[in-house]
Amino acid sequence: MRPRILVTGATGTVGRQVTAQLVEAGAEVRALAREPAGLPAGVEGVRGDLSVPGSPDAAFGGVEAVFLLWPFASADGLEGVLEAVAGQARRVVYLSSAVVRDHERRAERLVERSGLDWTILRPHAFAANTLRWAGRIRAEGVVREPYGRAAMALVHERDIAAVAVRALTEGGHHGAVYELTGPRSLTQDEQVRVIGEVIGRPVRWEEATPGSARRRMLARGWPPAAVDDVLRAQAAMTAGPATVTATVREVTGDPARTFRNWVAEHAHAFRV
Ligand SMILES: NC(=O)c1ccc[n+]([C@@H]2O[C@H](COP(=O)([O-])OP(=O)(O)OC[C@H]3O[C@@H](n4cnc5c(N)ncnc54)[C@H](OP(=O)(O)O)[C@@H]3O)[C@@H](O)[C@H]2O)c1
Q1: How far is the CA of 202 from the centre of ligand 1 (A)?
Q2: Atom of ligand 1 at shortest distance to CA of 50?
Q3: 128-155+182-243+258-272 CATH pick, 2.60.120.20, 3.40.50.300, 3.40.50.1820, 3.40.50.720
Q4: Quick check: 111 pLDDT over 90?
């Protein structure tokens, strides 16, 4: 019988890829979201809200493994969800973060104590984060932000998903904490240059002050603490090249995809 696997966050950046790759691997996939639309053929969409106790429970029935995304700034409520999962499934793969903020650390502890076979994914910054520049690049070919020298090894969502699919479908990943990066450290101004090269139009980085970026984010309604976190993290990333891990290759057998490859797949978003 085909393994039945539940993907939470199945319509998001990573979950969409996990779902597609599980289907390709021949698994029976159930997808949970509040609006489970646009799923690949054959995937069973289940509507549920992870923040509402009991709401997602129907999705857990008869599943063997769960890809767990917890898109909240607190681990409150996760224990109940894990209890419901442990009543049905045998395995959980939790999408944490390389930054491991307090609520993520708490969530990781809960996952480890769930009684399930667990795997934790700690991705670094997603290549998809650069889509936030798409509007400015289309409009004027300029990105005005602070910390152009901030370096990161941006990771392709397909690679995060490929590691998740291995951990969801094979033995040998219980207790593993996988730190995931792309293959190379690139500064933000280098990322912008790569986007320009791929779309065939010059795109330049214009260094802005942290103060102006702060005002812009606050005006968009970001909470002040989150704004400060982002700016502090970016300032720290100017200290030197970012960490690059070999985990994607070690787990999947394939090299991590480059940022240039990611841009080529998403070039339409940056082109006029
Ligand atoms: N961006 C980065 O650089 C980065 C780096 C490391 C880790 N992460 C982690 O990655 C996660 C985000 O992944 P992503 O970018 O793939 O997500 P995303 O694109 O923001 O999509 C979120 C998904 O979760 C679903 N969802 C949201 N609220 C929900 C709720 N209350 N109940 C049920 N489903 C809900 C959404 O569908 P509906 O809206 O239809 O419910 C959607 O499928 C976060 O936990 C973040 O901390 C991000």
Answers
A1: 32
A2: 32
A3: 3.40.50.720
A4: yes
Query: Which residues does 147 contact at the CB level (< 8 Å), separation at least 6?
Result: 188, 210, 231, 234, 235, 237, 238
Q: What is the mean pLDDT of residues 191-200?
A: 98
Look up tokens 């397909």; give the residue: 158
pLDDT at res. 75: 98
Q: Which atom of ligand 1 is nearest to the CA of 99?
A: 6
| Position in ligand 1 atom list of the atom nearest CA 104 | 47
Protein residues with CB under 6 Å of any ligand 1 atom: 9-15, 33-35, 49-51, 69-71, 95, 97, 123, 125-126, 129
Whether the pLDDT of residue 1 is over 90: the answer is: no
Spacing, Cα 7 to ligand 1 middle (Å): 12
Backbone phi and psi for residue 159, each to the nearest 5 degrees, phi listed first: -75, -40
What is the residue-averaged pLDDT of the chain? 97
pLDDT band at residue 206, thresholds of 50, 70 and 90?
very high
Closest-CA residue, ligand 1 atom 46, reads 71
Atom nearest to 35 CA in ligand 1: 40
Q: Among candidates 262, 225, 232, which has minimal Cα distance to 147?
A: 232
**CA nearest to 201, candidates 136, 138, 127, 128:** 138
The half-sphere exposure of 54 on its side-chain side, counting CA atoms within 13 A, is 0
